[in-house]
Amino acid sequence: MYSQEDFYSVDIGDTKFTVLKRYKNLRPIGAGTQGIVCAAYDDVTGKDVAIKKLWKPFQNIVFAKRAYREFKLMKLVDHVNIIKLLNAFTPQRSLDEFQDVFLVMDFMDANLGNVINTQLDHKRISYLLYQMLCGIKHLHSAGIIHRDLKPSNIVVKADCSLKILDFGLARAAGSTAMMTQYVVTRYYRAPEVVLGMGYTEKVDIWSIGCIMAEMISKEILFPGTDHIDQWNKIIEILGTPPASFLSKLEPSVRYYVESGPRCTGIDFNTLFPDEIFPDDSTEHGCLTATEARDLLSRMLVVDPDQRISVDQALDHTYINAWYNECEVNAPALNSYDHSVEEHEHTVEQWKNLMYEEVKEYEAQNYEMVEL
Ligand code: AMP
């Protein structure tokens, strides 16, 4: 097993990264609510990697549960469009001292937020969307509905390959009160998530629709300032949904929605006029503004029952040129124990569970490196 001599420390801003000596030349590349991420060079494989230090994972139950869930899922998933866990370790040698978890992943060049602001042609847009759909379909096949897909959770390489970075919200996400001190981006959350209704896989199509709109217009489509404003922004653009949708709402939410302003919404040709699209592709006849707008109009539908499904989106003319059976229908994940999400453990219990998982992983990986 690893000993103290296998590690060294480096200060990244005011965060200490204590990592295995094989990881050299650490430099910061990003920060999220969960932690700080560095790029590094792996001496053993000769490849660049990304190393994430989970930020105070045991400061409260929400963070602890999230860290545990992410780690469990990352170990399980194996799909070209989902980030792969290459290594994981803790520099602490006992449960008493345990506080940091480092996750080593494939290194990617940028997050999608950086790429959205660059000039994207139809070929790139449709290929990025195809990969998001393949990754999401794979998560769905294991019963994981993301619900929180956004540009900062998606990473890409210069060659346009794309990977989803995280696994979204747990089924029982925990008390929101604990998260209020952190800024959460709600812009991409589906109406059924915003309104606290039951939800299905279709929530992730909504997020992909919002991301697609942003790739084209370079502006956030629904920049709500809070929960309530998020709903208002949605209906200002798409219009107040019909009675068939309102009847599915809980009485109190229905009352709230019905007593709010009635909006007619904006027509898709006005919302996404030809001028804002890249030039139609001369190489691929189906990659045109008309097809892109058609896909947007099918994804950005308030009523999830009327919204296009992941399979239908993969079949859409704007997307299906990329269709590759191995990527679309990759074998489902090994079994994921969903009961983890329902468990009510104390922070200390989550910490114990995480410690066991990390130690088990270290032992397995250590043996593999030794071999
Ligand atoms: P996260 O803490 O996972 O939300 O990541 C925060 C940010 O770090 C992301 O938005 C990316 O900009 C960057 N990042 C995270 N993981 C990677 C990776 N594997 N490769 C490149 N950049 C990453």
Word description of this protein:
With 371 residues, the chain is α+β, with helices and mostly antiparallel strands. It has two domains: 4-107 and 337-370, 2-Layer Sandwich (Phosphorylase Kinase, domain 1), CATH 3.30.200.20; 110-328, Orthogonal Bundle (Transferase(Phosphotransferase), domain 1). The chain has 14 helices and ten strands. The strands form three sheets. The chain has a five-stranded antiparallel β-sheet with strand order 3-4-5-7-6. Strands 8-9-10 form a three-stranded antiparallel β-sheet. β4 and β5 (47-54) form a beta hairpin. The protein binds adenosine monophosphate. Adenosine monophosphate is lined by residues 29-32, 34-35, 37, 50, 52, 83, 105-108, 111, 152, 155, 165-166.
Q: Strand pairing plus helix content: what structural class?
A: alpha+beta
The number of distinct helices, counting runs of at least 4 residues, comes to 14
- Order of helix and strand elements from N to C terminus: EEEEEHEEEHHEEHHHHHHHHHHH
Distance between the termini: 13 Å
The H-level CATH homologous superfamily of the largest domain, spelled out, is Transferase(Phosphotransferase) domain 1
What quaternary form is this? single chain
